[in-house]
């Protein structure tokens, strides 16, 4: 099997990938256009593409006993996949026949059968959704879709919102990198595509397809860390912003290993590059009080805050004890902890009772990084409101994008790696550039990307640089907008 670079180069050669100025279906001007219709003239390339699609869809969690291509370009691709892997196919009509059976879906199936949707290009995800809707009307279950080229304009997220996982062979930014690497694109064109992507994202959870207001988000004055440090009231937020400013980092390290010594060794290596070390103390097998003393020493040595990712989620009275008593006594050593908003504001009140006297701060989990999570839409909005009402203790959010322009709140985003993707248990990864640059978050939270690396210290340095560069770029964009 050839690698993705070769595939991208071939697609470029046959002009399936075009760069210039194009008016999309939505009326938007785009510097790039994918026209996969031409591949029907290249049978061996069609075979290759079908192979890549199959490999991308062959995920442990993907559920399908049937295949269905989105009409028309993906139909022959689905056909090849079906024939090569002996998975029966369905055909979705674009219009019902006005004679005979009037069926929208051709092929054999029974209600409850699972079907993988195959698509050539995804922008907003609406074509995949239309096909999924037609299939579900006749009782077919769709939880997975595969696409050759993801334009990375929010289609994946919109589909996830509807419970459909989207797997892609390559994304717009990856394609640009490959073409630039092979001398087919110059860097101004790549920059043009990056800028286009930053400003043209289709947002989930809206009625109808609507573009986000990325432009206005960026053109609003994005305060620098030191400016924000001056205006925030909570001493912990002030301290954190000052650390971010002086250490030039927006990286939080999630040290999810299970032995005290491992934690301490990793933290000592990674400490110079981070503003926060995040723990899950309940996964540590040999937890003891000396461990906490040693961790605190490292926090002083390297100047970072400690965030215990406890995710409290009970009634106020219970969380108060969970936070201050038991084996871990979290409020005695963790500068920051977090809570789900699902129990109502009693959870914040309970934590605050024993946290505020020690100058601790809390983050509310307004969104999650995992696929299919329920912290979306109205839940997220209600969480932001809860934070606003308890801003003396709530210092920010766990979220996947900026939720409010109120500078008091720090936005921290987990699910970050140097390239987008996911794990086999539903974790979803975005890059530092997307999280900080496009989505306006403040802090990236990275676990396996660092502690599983051969050289965790160097990996942390790379994340730190990528996150900080994205923050600086935001400020540059702001300056340009202001002129
Ligand atoms: O929505 C959430 C909330 C918390 N997390 C936590 O962040 C780290 C991520 O680890 P990786 O190894 O970088 O995937 C982990 O501790 C989670 O519990 C999250 O991932 N998503």
Automatic annotation (TrEMBL):
<dbReference type="InterPro" id="IPR000836">
    <property type="entry name" value="PRTase_dom"/>
</dbReference>
<dbReference type="InterPro" id="IPR001754">
    <property type="entry name" value="OMPdeCOase_dom"/>
</dbReference>
<dbReference type="InterPro" id="IPR023031">
    <property type="entry name" value="OPRT"/>
</dbReference>
<keyword id="KW-0456">Lyase</keyword>
<dbReference type="InterPro" id="IPR029057">
    <property type="entry name" value="PRTase-like"/>
</dbReference>
<keyword id="KW-0808">Transferase</keyword>
<comment type="similarity">
    <text>In the C-terminal section; belongs to the OMP decarboxylase family.</text>
</comment>
<dbReference type="InterPro" id="IPR013785">
    <property type="entry name" value="Aldolase_TIM"/>
</dbReference>
<dbReference type="Pfam" id="PF00215">
    <property type="entry name" value="OMPdecase"/>
</dbReference>
<dbReference type="InterPro" id="IPR018089">
    <property type="entry name" value="OMPdecase_AS"/>
</dbReference>
<comment type="similarity">
    <text>In the N-terminal section; belongs to the purine/pyrimidine phosphoribosyltransferase family.</text>
</comment>
<dbReference type="InterPro" id="IPR004467">
    <property type="entry name" value="Or_phspho_trans_dom"/>
</dbReference>
<dbReference type="InterPro" id="IPR011060">
    <property type="entry name" value="RibuloseP-bd_barrel"/>
</dbReference>
<comment type="pathway">
    <text>Pyrimidine metabolism; UMP biosynthesis via de novo pathway; UMP from orotate: step 1/2.</text>
</comment>
<dbReference type="InterPro" id="IPR014732">
    <property type="entry name" value="OMPdecase"/>
</dbReference>
<dbReference type="Pfam" id="PF00156">
    <property type="entry name" value="Pribosyltran"/>
</dbReference>
<keyword id="KW-0210">Decarboxylase</keyword>
<feature type="domain" description="Orotidine 5'-phosphate decarboxylase">
    <location>
        <begin position="250"/>
        <end position="463"/>
    </location>
</feature>
<keyword id="KW-0511">Multifunctional enzyme</keyword>
<protein>
    <recommendedName>
        <fullName>Uridine 5'-monophosphate synthase</fullName>
        <ecNumber>2.4.2.10</ecNumber>
        <ecNumber>4.1.1.23</ecNumber>
    </recommendedName>
</protein>
<keyword id="KW-0665">Pyrimidine biosynthesis</keyword>
<keyword id="KW-0328">Glycosyltransferase</keyword>
<comment type="pathway">
    <text>Pyrimidine metabolism; UMP biosynthesis via de novo pathway; UMP from orotate: step 2/2.</text>
</comment>
């Amino acid at each position: 099997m050839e690698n993705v670079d070769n595939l991208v180069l071939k697609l470029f050669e046959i002009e399936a990938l075009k760069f210039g100025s194009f008016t999309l279906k939505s009326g938007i001007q785009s510097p790039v256009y994918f026209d996969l219709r031409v591949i029907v003239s290249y049978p061996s390339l069609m075979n290759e593409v079908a192979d890549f699609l199959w490999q991308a869809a062959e995920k442990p969690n993907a559920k399908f006993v049937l295949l269905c291509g989105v009409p028309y370009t993906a139909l022959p691709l689905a056909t090849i996949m079906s024939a090569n892997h002996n998975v029966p196919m369905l055909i979705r009509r674009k219009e019902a026949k006005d004679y005979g059976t009037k069926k929208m879906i051709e092929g054999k199936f029974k209600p409850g059968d699972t079907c993988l949707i195959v698509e050539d290009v995804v922008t907003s995800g609406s074509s995949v959704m239309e096909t999924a809707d037609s299939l579900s009307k006749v009782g077919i279950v769709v939880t997975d879709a595969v696409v050759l080229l993801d334009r990375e304009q929010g289609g994946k997220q919109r589909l996830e919102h509807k419970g459909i996982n989207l797997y892609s062979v390559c994304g717009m930014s990856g394609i640009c990198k490959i073409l630039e690497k092979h001398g087919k694109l110059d860097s101004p064109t790549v920059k043009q595509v990056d800028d286009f992507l930053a400003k043209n994202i289709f947002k989930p959870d809206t009625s109808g397809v609507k573009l986000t207001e990325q432009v206005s988000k960026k053109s609003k004055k994005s305060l620098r860390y030191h400016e924000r440090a001056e205006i925030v009231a909570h001493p912990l937020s002030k301290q954190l912003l000052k650390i971010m400013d002086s250490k030039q980092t927006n990286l939080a390290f999630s040290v999810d290993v299970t032995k005290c010594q491992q934690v301490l060794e990793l933290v000592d290596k990674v400490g110079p590059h981070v503003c926060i070390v995040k723990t899950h103390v309940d996964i540590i097998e040999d937890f003891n009080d000396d461990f906490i003393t040693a961790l605190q020493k490292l926090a002083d040595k390297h100047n970072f805050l400690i965030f215990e990712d406890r995710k409290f989620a009970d009634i106020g009275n219970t969380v108060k004890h969970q936070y201050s008593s038991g084996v871990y006594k979290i409020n005695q050593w963790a500068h920051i902890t977090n809570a789900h908003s699902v129990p109502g504001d009693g959870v914040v009140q309970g934590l605050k009772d024993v946290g505020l006297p020690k100058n601790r701060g809390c983050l509310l989990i307004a969104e999650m990084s995992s696929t299919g999570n329920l912290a979306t839409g109205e839940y997220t909005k209600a969480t932001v409101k809860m934070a606003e009402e308890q801003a003396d203790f709530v210092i920010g959010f766990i979220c996947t994008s900026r939720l409010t322009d109120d500078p008091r709140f720090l936005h921290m985003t987990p699910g970050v790696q140097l390239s987008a993707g996911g794990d086999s248990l539903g974790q979803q990864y975005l890059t530092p550039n997307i999280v900080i640059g496009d989505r306006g978050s403040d802090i990236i939270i990275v676990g396996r990307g660092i502690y599983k690396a051969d050289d965790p210290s160097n990996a942390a340095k790379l994340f730190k640089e990528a996150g900080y560069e994205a923050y600086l770029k935001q400020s540059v964009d702001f300056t340009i907008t202001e002129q």
